Amino acid sequence: MPGRITSIFEGRPDSATSGPSAFRDRRDAGRQLASLVSGLAGEQPVVLALPRGGVPVAFEVARALDAPLDVLVVRKIGAPGNPELAMGAVAEGNVRVLERETIAALLVSEVELEQATRRAEEELLTRLHRYRAGQPGVPVAERTVLVVDDGIATGATVSAAIQALRDRGAARIVVAVPVAAAPSARRLRRQADEVLCITEPTDLRGVGAWYEDFRQVDDAQVTALLADPAADSPAREADTRGWTRCPVRVPIGPGPGLEADLVVAPHAVGLVIFAHGSGSSRHSSRNRHVAARLNEHGLATLLLDLLTSEEELDRAKVFDIRLLAGRLLEATRWATHEATTAGLPIGYFGASTGAGAALVSAAQSGPAVGAVVSRGGRPDLAEERLHEVRAPTLLIVGGDDRLVLDLNRSAAEHLVCDHELTVVPGATHLFEEPGTLDRVAELAAAWFGERLAPHADA
Description:
By secondary structure, this protein is α/β, with parallel strands linked by helices. The chain has two domains: 4-215, Rossmann fold (3-Layer(aba) Sandwich); 243-456, Alpha/Beta hydrolase fold, catalytic domain (Rossmann fold, 3-Layer(aba) Sandwich), CATH 3.40.50. The chain has 13 helices and 17 strands. The strands form three sheets. It has an eight-stranded mixed sheet, with helices on both faces. Strands 1-9-8-7-2-3 form a six-stranded parallel sheet, with helices on both faces. It has a three-stranded antiparallel sheet with strand order 4-5-6. A hairpin with a 3-residue loop joins strand 5 (82-91) and strand 6. It is elongated.
């Protein structure tokens, strides 16, 4: 279906000569773009950012529309000797889009093209793991999807994104950017259902020319914004003053230690340590989403990688529940002596295989662990130790996650501690359906709040 392009003004920014740019920074551009796309709110769209630069822009758009925010990972295929010039792009889902005219004009050989494409695909896989930790993105099938970037030059990456979304069954694809080169916007109109631009200059002079501040966005910013869009809103800034938010290393012997992210409120009532599942990491958007909700309820959180980066390459270690439980014990001991967390009652939040490790560690920790929550967990992996667990345990399973639900029902029969099995209707294993992960967060916050907070007053 031919698309429609909407543009507020055309021309060239004054910054191309001597005046101010059109946007102060990407967040300012996002707020302006949010006004332009406000009419889409009724379609309940999914907002997908093209990382990294598109994420701060999309953050503002998603917040204004009260829409879910995710990334669609796309990488340009850089030209030999000039990697900033796109010969095409690759996108998640094995999508490849080539700019044949550019390739021919540059006299690029098939060998050079294949080498450049392979580099782009390797970088794409690296970023997919970094941003999603092996987990799928927000479902887009039969939904309106808003694709957001900080600007469009050649349009190659956006073209690849559109193709990837068509393959994933998106019902309607709307491209929204602060600035787009007019020729590129015209080409994208033939692919997308609609293209919304604040400005569409005939002479782009580079996307950065339209911003006063166009500093590079790093991965830490991307993961922070994806973790919980509401957490960074101006309305909550005063509430988080005095909080400790910092990366830490948990010592595990002579090695470099385990990387972790710690968040502690000034009057925290407890500390929840996260044990992620196989193929995931402390950057998991789902765990970070739950952690942000727990923070709102006065709970400190520690998201950590139970393996070093070298160990993650060994698949046997990824599923070594005894090893992972030992690392969780090390983190627990560290937290009891760390100045910012000493004295806080401790709980575990485990996902998938991490839940098995959390239960084994809880069995070994005794009274040191006050509560355990499992999300889509594999408590069956801790079956030999389940009868030793004394910490109150909540097992949360998706109603449509049949196999794991059966495993949890069986495991619950071996628990002698205070425990509950709660089923979230309509949820699958990753709780990617709208509202299901928020329900997990609500259940976890209530469980930890009731069982950890009383100990804080003891």
